[in-house]
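Reading a protein record of the kind used here takes little practice once its layout is understood. The fold follows as a row of integers, each naming the local backbone shape at the matching residue. With these conventions in mind, the following record can be read line by line:

_____
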Amino acid sequence: MDIVSSLTDRTANFQERWSKREVAGWATLTHEMQLFAPETDRIFASEGTLNAHKNSKDFAKNKQIFGHLTPDERNMVLSRSEETDMKIAALEDEICFLHDLLRPIFEDTIDHVTRKQARSAREVEEELEAIQRGELPAAGSRFDDADSAASSSGGEEVDLNDRAIYNPLNLPLGFDGKPIPYWMYKLHGLGHEFKCEICGNTSYWGRRAFDKHFSEWRHINGLKALHIPNSNHFHGVTGIEDAIRLHEKMRRESVSTIFNAEREMECEDASGNVMSYRTYQDLMRQGML
């Protein structure tokens, strides 16, 4: 397909389509719209903004100037507006034509890049070496998956959904049932394994899954079995001995902070002597106070 010649033919018949109002989106010109203000050559998105503009000083000044124009001068202003519309419409028509013409190339490029992202650097190098040896077609060529599946099965039609998924790196599957891109696999650190002894040496892949499991039932039940409450203090603790030591330390600190009346409360006798509550009780029992 010769893109240049096709675009030239498209541009050549644009003037004819423009005169017949057949250009998409330009059935009505700008100066024919209800929200257009010819006095200031501006168009507005809503009637409210148009009314606000008409109450401005700038509009009043331009309206006075526009009122003194002759009919020919007013037509000239509208002609300039039509010329501007035609230039914009020509660019839009050209862009839409190129978009429709290049759509298959865009889709093949996106599919090609997506497949490349799901491969490791070693796989890409092996593919390039195979292309140089002539064992594989050059990159960027279009393949028909249905034809390749049929040829590999001896001419019989094969359902693409029944074919084995090519996943040499054993990447996790996404919502569409296909392996996620390799860059996403590296971004989320899904290659890093985190083990939790409290959960029975369960493995969690990726930091996100590891952080999330501390609030899940498996970890909570593991702490309950150790008679340890599930609190933020134990977030990040995966070893059983570490959790027990931390729990004992917290209990000792909590005991030291509990108010002890016998040790901390003070009393005063009739002579003004200050003593602890326990000493005061002993002296009272001995009849010394």
